Amino acid sequence: xxxxxxxxxxxxGLGRVTHYYWPALETIPxxxxxxxxxxxxxxxxxxxxxxxxxxxxxxxxELCKQVNxxxxxxxxxxxxHYTVMQELLPYGKPILLEKPATSSANDWEQLLAQxxxxxxxxxxxxxxxxxxxxxxxxxHQETWQDSLGNxxxxxxxxxxxxxxxxQLQPGxxxxxxxxxxSGVNALSTIAKFVRSLELIExxxxxxxxxxxxxxxxxxSFGINGNDFGxxxxxxxxxxxxxxxxxxxxxxxxxxxxxxxxxxxxCVRLIAPERQSKILADFAGEKSRLVxxxxxxxxxxxxxxxxxxxxxxxxxxxxxxxxxAYEKPYxxxxxxxxxxxxx
Length: 342
Description:
Elements: E1 7-12, H1 21-25, E2 31-37, H2 41-50, E3 56-57, H3 60-67, E4 71-74, H4 81-88, E5 95-98, H5 105-118, E6 122-125, H6 132-148, E7 153-159, E8 163-164, E9 167-168, H7 178-190, E10 195-206, E11 212-223, E12 226-237, E13 244-251, E14 256-261, E15 266-270, E16 276-281, H8 288-306, H9 311-323, E17 328-331, E18 338-340
Parallel strand pairs: 1-2, 1-4, 2-3, 4-5, 5-6, 7-12, 10-17
Antiparallel strand pairs: 7-13, 8-9, 10-11, 11-12, 13-14, 14-15, 15-16, 17-18
Protein name: Gfo/Idh/MocA family oxidoreductase
InterPro entries: Gfo/Idh/MocA-like_OxRdtase_N, Gfo/Idh/MocA_Oxidoreductases, NAD(P)-bd_dom_sf
Domain Gfo/Idh/MocA-like oxidoreductase N-terminal: 7-124
């Protein structure tokens, strides 16, 4: 493939996340958007009133007929991904699909089978794994482990202000739940640093609408040939009024900690005596999510050039995501009593 190849994209879905696409795509000369699609006629009409060189359509079939893109980007709500993919897969073109690929384990297994039958390259957009602080420490991890030892533990806190007084904001309902939306971000991040990640158990708290708004999941992972030597946990919460994402990586051999501050886009080294030193700082350079999607689209461009996908990585993440429903310990919002659901 010519390294200067230009791929013509069609974006399906004009939701909030696509606001971060446009500045990110400007940094990838090999990608250009030639058409968009959304089932909301008002969004389509509004788009066409201001964008004459990139038309919008209500139907995917019309989009493909008129602009014939080289690849698709799916940015519709998670619950609609499976249905949208049924329309796109027969075209046999590469697809960048927003995370999570589906909102249920059954849909995920069926989608995987269809992808393999169609022999289509599908790349899942795990945008949190492309944050600058994550990429920086991933690049330097071996160097730091020479002095700090192996990662022996982790904790991830991914908090979003999507609920108050037990009620979700209207725009959050399309995100399904705090575990499905925020949990997949944490999983895709921590999986970059540890191997053989296995779920031990999960704790879910539901709101009055039976939606998971708080989750706490514990894991084991491999260290030096021991597949279960490490321990870690992930917490997600929509009801604290916080917009906060942070990952702690612990090194028991030396007592140090690496802190990946996803909001402030920086990496800190915490000494045993709790002194803090900033190792890398990307704050102020650009929007956090724009930076994420620069990485997502750069990675998508590489996959398009090579004719590859990230389905092995996606299988690992989705297996853990949906396994949490098989090992839950839930808090019933009506009785306020814990109920084991093993």
